[in-house]
Design brief:
It comes from Stenotrophobium rhamnosiphilum. This is DUF1329 domain-containing protein. InterPro entries: DUF1329 (IPR010752). Pfam families: DUF1329. This protein has about 450 residues and is of the alpha+beta class. Helices cover about 15% and strands about 30% of the residues. The protein has a 15-stranded mixed sheet that branches. A hairpin with a 5-residue loop joins strand 15 and strand 16. The termini are far apart.
Length: about 450
């Protein structure tokens, strides 16, 4: 039996106090020793931060659906755009129990690397992450118990998908303001880390680089072959090299840095800058600060893989003028998130004035992301869902043989134009490409991640 020692608002008061001083994660006890010992996060928080029913005083409980009629009960647990979607656009959010086992919030090798290397990271004189002896990072979250906004952002930036190699087969639907389907796309997104790898190695001896990342479109026919290659430097002050192949011109061209704030193809609301809420090198942004610490509804549990999808992981839809603007989604109460703000100091022509990122302290991953235009008005949200890819019928395994953990879907909503790009990580897309979290012995670098590769993919 658990004896209740604290009044109802104790947890929220403590989070507010901690926001001002950069304290460790956890309210009743430090979080990370518990994750390291058992994976159980529940003893770090009072009951009100672990139970949506207690938090809302019985107004919302697991199994309920949040809609326009009851969303006020959880308004403070949603980012402003998600709240508006529910309140005015017919979105529904299914509520489930909170995940208390932290091992279900990471890929197993990434969590192992985080625990193994805890305390070995530091920021150098330029605010780049290095080991204590000044070498590139050696895997996992460098700052699992982050104390400031730069450390929190480093956890997002160094290993986006948290696998040494990730290949996402993506199916995208773009919804017009009137609710009609305007565009559909199939594309592949591949990430290969050269440093900050869970295996602790430096791939190909490329210590000066962080990752190779490419994207190529396979459908519809009029954009098939359009492809881009990002080469990221380890030094986060440097802009990536961005090259693209456009089939209409049959050549590779170099793109300018500010191309990161434009759609890659017509109709989408997705920018390169949006990726993982850290699509640009972290030191090309500045004025980082923590502006809040609070519980949050986040789409982070296994139910997002277990429910609401078909055999290709495509999801049921609802809401908006035509009933197809939003995916069916499952949210749970996250006991503690940190809200980080930053400004695009390295981009004089950026259309943004700032970004705001809500980060789950348990795994250091973002759960909501809003950007603001030059006037300071809300512009876009980039909302992810994550899950272990495992249920009672199947388990997708990662490179370690454990259940894979990855993103499941994203809502990318331009709230000003009211255009929605919603996309899933599908099992397979046009061209026969499949999602994978291992190279499986394939030379993915030469196949997908060079200038010659994107030219060949575009010409195929």
């Amino acid at each position: 039996m658990r004896i209740k020692k604290y009044d109802f608002d104790y947890g929220r008061r403590m989070l507010l106090q901690k926001a001002a001083v950069g304290a460790s994660a956890g309210v009743l006890a430090p979080l990370w020793p518990m994750i390291g010992n058992t994976g159980d996060t529940s003893k770090a928080y009072p009951d009100e931060l672990l139970s949506i029913s207690m938090y809302t005083k019985g107004k919302i409980k697991p199994g309920d659906v949040v809609d326009a009629n009851n969303v006020e009960a959880v308004k403070d647990l949603l980012d402003p755009i998600a709240y508006q979607q529910v309140k005015t656009m017919g979105r529904r959010i299914n509520i489930v129990e909170s995940t208390k086992d932290a091992t279900k919030l990471f890929p197993a090798p990434y969590l192992a690397a985080t625990l193994k290397n805890k305390g070995k990271a530091k920021l150098d004189a330029n605010n780049n992450v290095v080991t204590q002896d000044g070498q590139p990072w050696i895997g996992g979250n460098p700052f699992p118990d982050f104390k400031n906004a730069i450390e929190a952002t480093a956890n997002l930036t160094l290993a986006w998908g948290r696998h040494d190699y990730s290949q996402y087969a993506v199916r995208d639907w773009d919804i017009a303001p009137d609710g009609t389907l305007a565009y559909t796309y199939d594309f592949v997104w591949a990430e290969l880390n050269t440093t900050a790898r869970s295996d602790g190695k430096v791939w190909g001896g490329k210590k000066d680089l962080l990752r190779y990342q490419s994207v190529w479109f396979t459908a519809p026919q009029d954009v098939a072959g359009t492809s881009f290659l990002n080469t990221w430097y380890y030094d986060q002050r440097k802009f990536p090299d961005l090259q693209g192949y456009l089939p209409a011109f049959k050549r590779v061209r170099q793109f300018p840095t500010n191309q990161r704030f434009e759609p890659l193809v017509p109709g989408v609301t997705i920018f390169l800058s949006d990726a993982w809420a850290a699509g640009d090198p972290m030191l090309t942004w500045g004025n980082y600060k923590i502006v809040g610490r609070k519980p949050m509804l986040g789409f982070v549990g296994g139910r997002n893989f277990n429910g609401g999808y078909n055999a290709n992981y495509e999801r049921k839809v609802h809401g908006g003028p035509k009933g197809q603007t939003f995916f069916e989604t499952y949210a749970e109460l996250i006991p503690e998130t940190v809200i980080v703000e930053a400004e695009p100091t390295g981009y004089p022509r950026a259309p943004l004035s700032k970004k705001r990122t809500w980060i789950d302290v348990r795994n250091g991953m973002y759960v909501a992301y809003n950007t603001y235009d030059r006037r300071g008005e809300m512009w876009k949200s980039f909302e992810p869902a994550y899950a272990q890819y495992s249920n009672d019928k199947m388990t997708v395994k990662d490179e370690s043989g454990n259940p894979s953990w990855s993103w499941v879907y994203v809502h990318s909503h331009d709230i000003q134009a009211n255009r929605m790009s919603r996309f899933v990580q599908a099992k397979e897309i046009t061209g026969g490409y499949k999602s994978s979290y291992s190279t499986n012995g394939v030379d993915v670098y030469n196949k997908y991640l060079t200038v010659q590769a994107i030219q060949r993919l575009g010409s195929a």
